[in-house]
Amino acid sequence: MADQQQFDVVVIGGGPAGYHAAIRAAQLGLKTACVDAALGKDGKPALGGTCLRVGCIPSKALLDSSRQFWNMGHIFDQHGISFDKPKIDVGKMVARKDAIVKQFTGGIAALFKANKVTAFYGWAQLQPGNIVKVKQHDGSEVELKGTNVILAAGSDSIELPFAKFGEHIVDNVGALDFDKVPKRLGVIGAGVIGLELGSVWNRLGSQVTVLEGLPNFLAAADTEVAKVAAREFKKQGLDIKLGCKVTNTEVKKDGVHVFYTDDKGEQEIVVDKLLVCVGRRAATKNLLADGTGVKLDQRGMIEVDDHCHTGVDGVWAVGDCVRGPMLAHKGFEEGIEVAELIAGLPGHVNYDTIPNVIYTEPEIAWVGKTEEQLKADGIAYKAGSFPFAAVGRAVAMAEPAGFVKVLADAETDRILGMHLVGANVSELVHEGVISMEFNGSADDLARICHAHPSLSEAVHDAAMAVAKRAIHKAN
User: Any idea which positions bind NAD(+) (predicted)?
Assistant: First the structure.
């Protein structure tokens, strides 16, 4: 064992939460190390976690490629653009995705170097006394002593006992690397991953069937938003079946046989590939040695307080391995928060204003409470909505589907939530985030000048509609 190396901060995990924590700590003058085990396709260390390597970034690359292909066959004609039959080179599309991933993983390594973060590549385990033992990829071991240790281990896909991952049954990682368009793709789970990757391969010509266990589509989203999204997905050819409990799978010569029950009884479909995306679990297995004092809950998540402290002196935890939504941007903010708290600065994350986005077509986004949640909480509210079909920019883009809804307190007019479905709403939702962060009212948002023509006018008119004074629709 090499001599113990001393650091002010040791971060375990180089994903969104971990690399933000490491860089911010180093910016604040703290001697910082970050340990990460992931390897890229080339077998070399690849920082960035699930998000950058096999999640957010690569999926958006494929979504954008497949959207271009879809538009050629479904929207370009409206613009008067015609051409011979469009073709897709799946290998080239995947290679583009891989190049983008490599660019960004290398970018984080460069940021570590620029900020003097010491990177270690291998498997880390927290020992009692804030000691981190690292088994590096070359087989050697190093021991790090941190005045503070930040656990940012991330999460892994949940594997079903009757649907083990392999060549034909895959998680999101496998679904990013198909070498050809599967003729039939089955998807278990109509959540973010299922809808996004289902959309990718549906646009490229796959017959996609999505099996969702819950009786309601996108139960976490606003009911009206979910209804509009479901209608658009159906138009695109996605076959989404609700209330389906998958009971077994069998890989045979003719494909993957998927057995499930619904309100009509026992059912079976046969697909060429099956994507399983039924959730993720904290990647805390073997993270903690005995005696650290750090506690895990029944789901394997690290228990922390409101400021991500574990209750053990100098030990913190952030990102997917702690409570709250498993979102990269939530991890970003927690990593920065903890680094600043360690440095003696104020640090805080407002979990009430974390935006949620699903990057389908149309996009789906929201922040704050839904109408259903406000009703359940007994909060009196006002609602205003505005359709993209009445927005000049959306119609000119040939993307008029969807709407924006603003929810405000009935008495104070303070914005309580914003819900959107439509083109580019992943960007528009931040008007709601910022308004809510500053305790803004619907009237505040309604009185802010928005450029014309722009998609953001839907936000403006929805805010005006809260007080029944929208100009471009009947109130």
Answer: 189-196, 212, 279
Band of residue 263 on the pLDDT scale cut at 50, 70, 90? very high
For 302-358, the pLDDT digits (tens) are 999 999 999 999 999 999 999 999 999 999 999 999 999 999 999 999 999 999 999
For the domain spanning 362-466, the CATH number is 3.30.390.30
Q: Which amino acid is at 388?
A: F
Which 3 state secondary structure label does DSSP give 285?
coil
DSSP H helical ranges for 128-181: 172-175
Neighbour tally for 120: CB within 10 Å: 21
Q: Is the predicted pLDDT of residue 2 greater than 80, yes or no?
A: no
pLDDT of residue 426: 98
Q: How far apart are CA 36 and CA 137, in angstroms?
A: 10
Q: What is the pLDDT of residues 398-451, one digit of tens each?
A: 999 999 999 999 999 999 999 999 999 999 999 999 999 999 999 999 999 999
Instruction: Tell me which residue of 151, 153, 133 sits closest to 143, measured CA to CA.
Output: 133
- The position carrying tokens 């073997």 is 286
Does 5-156+281-351 match 362-466 in CATH topology?
no
Distance between CA atoms of 61 and 197, rounded to whole angstroms? Answer: 11
> Is 168 marked active-site?
no
Can you read off the two tokens belonging to residue 288? 């903690």
Residue partners of 62: CB distance under 8 A and separation at least 6: 93, 94, 97, 176, 197, 200
- Token pair in block for residue 378: 């007994």
Known binding-site positions for NAD(+): 189-196, 212, 279
Tell me the pTM: 0.97
Q: What are the CA-CA distances from residue 136 to residues 37, 102, 123, 350 (Å)?
A: 8, 21, 6, 36
188 in Cβ contact with 276 (< 8 Å): yes
| Helix or strand holding residue 51 (H, E) | helix 49-54
What top-level class would CATH report for the domain 5-156+281-351? Answer: alpha beta
- Domain boundaries defined on the chain: 5-156+281-351, 169-273, 362-466
Q: Mean pLDDT, to the nearest integer, of 371-388? A: 98
Contact, 169 vs 276, CB < 8 A?
A: yes
CATH architecture of 169-273: 3-Layer(bba) Sandwich (3.50)
Cα gap 384→381, rounded to integer Å: 10
Which residues does the annotation place in the binding site for FAD?
A: 60, 320, 326-329
What pLDDT, on a 0 to 100 scale, did the predictor assign at position 475?
81
Among the listed residues 74, 79, 348, 452, the single catalytic one is: 452
User: CA 347 to CA 336: how far, in whole Å?
Assistant: 8
Is residue 1 pLDDT above 60, yes or no?
no
Most distant CA atoms of the chain, gap in Å: 74
- Tokens 């954008």, residue? 64
